[in-house]
């Protein structure tokens, strides 16, 4: 299974990024091979629609699960449309959240916000 998570930098010790759509990178963790791949989020500096573009990046990565602190409704539609499960991260590193998910310790992300629609956060 592939797990996607928005991160602040492209190293193994990176923290989860608080913004899904504006995260600089996505860490794609493969639970079978225990390998990590960092994908640049081309939407990070987009004028608008960053969440939708970021969600498409996650879909293209073939992830089956997205771990994120929050998600806007437009991005969530793309994620849900691809049958990707959403889980809410805890404060801390990407790897600690992947471990928490693997141990069934992360809740499903139910609170989807309206999105930032044109603001520089999303």
In total, how many domains does the architecture comprise?
1
Largest sheet properties: 5 strands, mixed
Strand content: 15-25%
Radius of gyration: 13 Å
Overall form:
globular
Q: What is the third-level CATH name, the topology?
A: Nucleotidyltransferase, domain 5
**Sheet with most strands: strand arrangement:** 3-2-1-4-5
Give unreliable regions as ranges: 118-122
Specify the CATH architecture: 2-Layer Sandwich
Structural features, described:
The protein has three helices and five strands, in the order E-E-E-H-E-H-E-H. With 122 residues, the protein is α/β, with parallel strands linked by helices. It has a single domain, classed as Dinitrogenase iron-molybdenum cofactor biosynthesis domain (Nucleotidyltransferase, domain 5). Strand 4, helix 2 (73-81) and strand 5 form a beta-alpha-beta unit.
Please give the structural blueprint.
Layout: E1 2-7, E2 25-30, E3 35-40, H1 50-60, E4 65-68, H2 73-81, E5 85-88, H3 94-102
Parallel strand pairs: 1-4, 4-5
Antiparallel strand pairs: 1-2, 2-3
Task: Note the main attributes of this structure.
122 residues, alpha/beta, Nucleotidyltransferase, domain 5, 3 helices, 5 strands, disordered C terminus
Summarize the model shown.
With 122 residues, the chain is α/β, with parallel strands linked by helices. It contains 3 helices and 5 strands; from the N terminus they run E-E-E-H-E-H-E-H. The protein has helices at 50-60, 73-81, 94-102; strands at residues 2-7, 25-30, 35-40, 65-68, 85-88.
């Amino acid at each position: 299974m592939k797990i996607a998570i928005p991160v602040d930098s492209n190293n193994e010790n990176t923290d989860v990024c608080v913004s899904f759509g504006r995260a600089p990178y996505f860490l794609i963790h493969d639970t079978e091979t225990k390998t990590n791949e960092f994908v640049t989020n081309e939407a990070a500096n987009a004028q608008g629609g960053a969440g939708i573009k970021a969600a498409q990046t996650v879909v293209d990565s073939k992830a089956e699960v997205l771990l994120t602190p929050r998600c806007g409704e437009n991005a969530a539609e793309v994620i849900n449309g691809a049958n990707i499960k959403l889980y809410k991260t805890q404060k801390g590193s990407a790897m600690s959240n992947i471990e928490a998910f693997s141990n069934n310790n992360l809740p499903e992300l139910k609170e989807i916000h309206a999105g930032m629609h044109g603001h520089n956060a999303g």
